Amino acid sequence: MKTAMALFTAASLAAFTGCVDTAGTTIRTNHATGSAQIFEDSTRIRDWLDVLSVNCNTVNGLNRVVVTVKSRKHDRIRLAYRISWFDENGMEIDGDAKPQRELIIGGLDTASLTGVAPNARAVTSKLRVIDLREMD
Hints:
Elements: H1 2-13, E1 25-30, E2 35-40, H2 43-48, E3 49-59, E4 62-71, E5 77-86, E6 92-93, E7 101-105, E8 110-116, E9 124-131
Antiparallel strand pairs: 1-2, 1-9, 3-4, 4-8, 5-6, 5-7, 5-9
């Protein structure tokens, strides 16, 4: 898990060029291997949030992911997030049942985003964070 966190931290610090600001940020986790990857499509969100940790465990036989993020801004930020779950073939499980959730993070504050798999077939997850100001 330490190797995954080192890769995760390095990826979160990397700057990507040619990004689309409205696209959001995606974190993919593989619960079988404990690995996590961050894909930042939004330069704005990349500048606003640091991903402090990604933890995977099981609760009552179901996979759970907890992603802890920290705001870099002194003002509060308004985001939306959704955690999707996928089976071993990469097919999304119960995609329509999980709406986006609003997240407001105070200045320089942290938040933990938690998702539990809908069933035991879910082996990977994807967290997507978007800027709600673009949706207004």
